Amino acid sequence: MNNLAIIGAGSMSEALISGIVSSKIIEPTAITVTNRGNVKRLTELQERYGIHYSFNLEKIIPEADVIILAMKPKDVKEAIAQWKDYLSEKTLLISVLAGVSMDSLQRLIGTEVPIARAMPNTSATVGKSATGISFNSFVVDEQKQFVHEMFETVGFVTFVEEEQLDAITGLSGSGPAYIYYLVEAMEKGGLTIGLDRDVANALIIQTLLGAAEMIAKSSKTPLELRKNVTSPGGTTEAGIRILEEFDVQKAFITCIQEATAQSKRMGKALTDDLKLPK
Ligand SMILES: NC(=O)C1=CN([C@@H]2O[C@H](COP(=O)(O)OP(=O)(O)OC[C@H]3O[C@@H](n4cnc5c(N)ncnc54)[C@H](OP(=O)(O)O)[C@@H]3O)[C@@H](O)[C@H]2O)C=CC1
Ligand SMILES: O=C(O)[C@@H]1CCC=N1
Description:
The chain is an alpha/beta fold. Helix content is 55%, strand content 13%. The chain has helices spanning 11-23, 39-49, 57-63, 76-83, 102-109, 141-152, 165-173, 175-192, 197-217, 222-229, 235-245, 248-274; strands at 4-7, 31-34, 52-53, 66-69, 92-95, 115-119, 129-135, 155-159. α7 (165-173) crosses α12 and α8 (175-192) crosses α9 (197-217).
């Protein structure tokens, strides 16, 4: 793969650029990013990663071997309309858009092109994304291998049927935000019991890293690991009793279900607009 074009320059786009550039799978000078018109943001990415930016779609689209779609789902219709006429049938499109099906993309483009639909997360920035990927039938082996390698440079990759991507969006696409939310609460809790913010923050980060590594490396289930922390009549038992009273596990389960449902609703809004069968 020689040239990569990235359409959209927001947080997901930067997470991918950061991972790809540091892994050196593609030269920074072979990457061109564009957006709707925010030059300040494009200049920032250019200076930070040594990549190019351009608004010349007539040039960057036909020259690209791979195009990553990284705008919001609500903007995809307008975005594709701007450059679909310059697209070669061999160019691989990689979409990271929540909810948007490959059928919808195909319909918007109007010709049969290879499409990979991926759901990474912003931990790609530090090489720790959890990414689910699906392909349409026009993607050839060499392109599949490239997609695999590219997303592996930014973390863990799993290949799934497209139907599972809404669930992956609800679980791990949005997942970092659930963890940040938990950390916000732990920080606030730390302050109320008299810890300095910096001290609390350092302790929380190490606690999260340690717990994540325990889950990954131990043969024990999370429930067993939790029981190992919980001494009868001790502090953990007292704390967990409060989480149970608030039904925090149910809140997390419902949160993941609702995020998944929202991914489906976002996809349906576009299929309804395009009058595609569900
Ligand atoms: N953020 C996340 O954690 C994750 C996001 N995703 C998916 O990634 C996509 C991007 O999300 P995120 O980075 O958060 O979004 P942002 O809002 O941060 O960025 C969106 C970008 O798209 C650009 N854009 C909008 N319309 C067009 C257009 N017509 N042509 C070119 N560029 C356009 C915007 O440009 P401008 O600023 O000029 O308007 C902006 O650079 C979404 O589809 C989301 O579902 C997937 C996994 C995780
Ligand atoms: O909130 C969103 O819609 C995107 C998709 C997954 C994470 N962020």
